[in-house]
Write a structure and sequence with these properties.
Number of helices: 8
Helix content: over 70%
Radius of gyration: 24 Å
Number of domains: 1
Shape: globular
Strand content: under 5%
Order of helices and strands: HHHHHHHH
Number of strands: 0
Length: 265
């Protein structure tokens, strides 16, 4: 039996009211989380500025990144001109200056996070440490390529992507799972400053991943040896370098600027 017109209108208005209330609550939650994140950034920006060691680490890392970009651009333009420069100037070179610097900064970041975990015993610090360790292991040992080959051998060949690429995606999904676990403090209100710092480390690694995936896809479509390809190649490697090195540098800076709890002094 059909409801009277007035009853249907009332039901529709009630449903619209419920949806509007849900949208308002979601909006308020997002605004609250955004404000919390900005407050965390402001807290650590002030703490790092007040620490000479922490400030020096960030500034030195940025200067080193820019210097390495200059060497990489010089190498790539020299190739176009038919001039030879040392291969270790190239940011794409295995165990070149750029990759070695990434390894050093990631390792320092892991040590700093272990120190922070000893001080605070927060799960998010442990997850961020695991995330940086995965980055270091993958960069040093090319784990996602090797795991991709192993996993790809166990997959059928009639798939949309080559089996080894699917294997690589399965391995890289581990990064996403650890990153999501590190972002867990976003879902509760009693987030502490050291947890907010872990969120920025995850964001920096995500920044590097964007360049490693999105910019790399654009780079692959450009004509080899063209000026556009040279610029895109440098931009891709530089973005990865900045994201990874700053993630390690920020971990070191936080450990330097973080007040040690009285129970651990």
């Amino acid at each position: 039996m059909a409801l009277p017109l007035r009853a249907r209108l009332a039901a529709n208005q009630h449903a619209v009211g419920i949806i509007g209330l849900m949208e308002l609550r979601v909006s308020n939650w997002l605004i609250d989380r955004w404000a919390t994140g900005l407050a965390g950034l402001a807290h650590w920006a002030k703490a790092i500025r007040q620490s000479v060691l922490a400030s020096a680490v960030i500034v030195a890392t940025l200067m080193a990144d820019c210097w390495l970009l200059g060497l990489d651009m010089a190498f790539r333009y020299a190739v176009l001109d038919g001039t030879e420069l040392p291969n270790w100037f190239n940011l794409s070179q295995e165990m070149g200056l750029g990759e070695i610097f990434e390894h050093v900064m990631t390792a320092l970041g892991i040590c700093a996070l272990l120190m922070l975990f000893y001080r605070h015993r927060r799960r998010q610090i442990a997850m961020a440490t695991i995330l940086l360790a995965l980055v270091l292991a993958d960069n040093a040992l090319q784990l996602h390529e090797q795991v991709g080959v192993v996993l790809g051998g166990a997959l059928p060949t009639d798939l949309l992507l080559p089996p080894h690429q699917i294997g690589e995606l399965l391995f890289l999904s581990a990064f996403a799972l650890v990153a999501l676990a590190t972002l867990a403090p976003l879902f509760h209100k009693d987030i502490v400053p050291v947890e907010q710092a872990m969120l920025l480390i995850v964001a920096l690694i995500g920044f590097a991943a964007i360049f490693g995936i999105a910019v790399d896809a654009v780079h692959a479509m450009l004509a080899t040896g063209s000026l556009q390809e040279v610029v895109a190649g440098s931009l891709e490697d530089f973005g990865e370098l900045v994201g990874i090195s700053l993630a390690g540098a920020f971990a070191v800076a936080v450990a330097a600027a973080d007040p040690i709890p009285a129970t651990n002094r």
